[in-house]
Amino acid sequence: MAAEFCARTGDNVRNLAFLRVAGAYGQLARTVRSETTKEAIHVKRFAMQLVEDDRGQDLIEYGLLAGFISLASVTMILNVGSGVEGIYDDLETQAQVLNN
């Protein structure tokens, strides 16, 4: 094919060199494209496995539940602590009034 092209155009050396470079570039482009396609398929397959895999789901749910319970407990303890502090302040004030 390259010889036929060179024979038709008449400039054998330059055209043959161009065809060799173009052929090598085309082969490189096909290789890169196929590798990119393989990588894309691999990434897509990996993503689908992550979506479909439900191992460890219970552990995550229990962790979230423990976190929410801890947050609620801390909030409740802080609110109760403020209320208890108010009661002790009132008792202290009444004790000082009774001592005077």
From the N-terminal CA to the C-terminal CA, the straight-line distance is 117 Å
Radius of gyration: 39 Å
Largest sheet: none
Overall domain count: 2
Give the percentage of residues in beta strands: under 5%
Which consecutive residue ranges, at least 5 long each, have pLDDT under 50?
Answer: none
Instruction: Give the helices and strands as they follow along the chain.
Output: HHH
- Please estimate the helix content: over 70%
Secondary structure tally: strands? 0
Q: Could you tell me the mean pLDDT?
A: 75
Write a short abstract of this structure.
The protein has helices at 2-9, 12-52, 57-99.
Account of the protein in words:
With 100 residues, the chain is mainly α. It has 2 domains: 1-53; 55-100. The protein has 3 helices and no strands. The protein has helices spanning 2-9, 12-52, 57-99. 0% of the residues are buried. The mean pLDDT is 75.
Itemize the secondary structure elements and their pairings.
Blueprint: H1 2-9, H2 12-52, H3 57-99
Helix pairs in contact: 1-2
Name its key features.
single chain; 100 residues; rod-shaped; mainly alpha
